[in-house]
Amino acid sequence: MTAVQADTSGDYRTLVTRANDLYDQGDAQFKNQKFEQGSAYFVAAAKVYAAALKQQAGDPAVGTDYATSLFYAGNIDAALTQAKKVVTASPTFQPAWFNLGNFYAHKARIAEQSGTKAQAAATYDQARAAYTRAIAIDPKSDTGKQATAGLQSLPK
Q: Could you tell me the domains of the chain?
């Protein structure tokens, strides 16, 4: 695995562009089944997104990409915390609700596999609520359709 540097210098726009590039590289690595290398890119992307948000908070797309980077870097709890910040500040930003549903669903599956059924059930309920909010914003959008599929994939 090649180390990935997280250059956190520069202005807001430079940082967001750099973070987006790292995110895209991580995504490409994941698609090529190179998960460890992809995760390294997502760790770096998360650091750069964090630096950008320190300079200028408020863009829900950047906040959501930061949350997703944290998730793919393996930090599910931090991803949940960040996604919740986005939906609190921008309650109609559909991608954040959709990703929040994904993060909760993943956490619920982990709880289910470790045998903590009550925790899994409660976390699946949180995933259902997040997907439902995403769908309510615009059920016909691509994100709304993905949220519908996510909701339908959850155990009853």
A: 7-90 (1.20.58), 91-156 (1.20.58)
Place of tokens 């991608």: 95
- Residue carrying the six token digits 């956190």: 8
Instruction: State which H helix or E strand residue 20 sits in.
Output: helix 12-31
Could you tell me the sign of the dihedral formed by the alpha carbons of 111, 109, 147, 71, in that order? positive
Q: State the Cα–Cα distance between residues 90 and 132, nearest whole angstrom.
A: 16
99-123: pLDDT as tens digits:
999 999 999 999 999 888 899 999 9
Cα separation, 76 vs 89, whole angstroms? 20
Residue 124's alpha-carbon distances to 57, 71, 93, 106, 121, in angstroms, are 30, 17, 21, 9, 5
Distance CA 82, CA 63 (A): 7
What predicted TM-score, i.e. pTM, was given to this entire model?
A: 0.94
